[in-house]
Amino acid sequence: MSQFDLTGKVAIITGSSKGIGKASAFELAEHGAKIVISSRKQDACDAVAAEINARYDEGTAIAVAANISDKAGLQNLVDETRAAFGQIDVVVCNAASNPYYGPQEGIADDQFRKILDNNIVSNHWLISMVVPEMRARKSGSIIIISSIGGLRGSPVIGAYCISKAADMQLARNLAVEYGPDNVRVNCIAPGLIKTDFARALWEDEKLAERRNATTPLRRIGNPDEIAGGVVFLASAASAFMTGQTIVIDGGVTI
Fold first, then answer.
1. Over the stretch 140-156, which tens digit does the pLDDT of each residue have?
2. Which residue of the set 56, 100, 101, 160 is catalytic?
3. pTM above 0.90?
4. CATH number of 10-248: 2.60.120.620, 3.40.50.720, 3.40.1280.10, 3.40.50.880?
């Protein structure tokens, strides 16, 4: 059996109606997992779940809308997943927000708090909701989608970078706590990926040209190129890996 086989596993992916989350959902389904699509809007979630069920077996995916800023909504996401599939084996904390673009000194308090709450605290909430059953079962993989912004500073997305650095430390800390129960916690740090979330960065032609010129692979990435890393971390292929951050950035940070 392939180390990447996920047959019988159940995965929740937040922010999975588009971009990296959607690509990850399809790739996890491709390797045999049952999928729970989640984002803020139920109709968008329903559409992606329908796509997955049309491509694979009916019942491969369900859709449960949840706003990551709503703790009760996240608990409902977990409860509905258990009701549908019985257990949770993999959680991909992908959803995030960045309502401010500019120097750090100009950010409003509510914008800063929103970034920290949505990008760090919500991950803590969701993980805390799913980890007890994983620890009891002595099996589970938690994947946080961070960013190379967490490895360096930025003059325009500083608060976002701060939150993504915190996600890396969240993974390290939880890996220490949950490791004795064989629950693994890892991060992926993408570089610039062609998603709606990063549109302000890659649609700027001059900025994109500069980025391409300083990227060893000479291009920005696509969501599918992050999804492979998600499958790796979700599967037995990464069974001896925890607390780590995998950088997938075309070589930018080297």
1. 999 999 999 999 999 99
2. 160
3. yes
4. 3.40.50.720
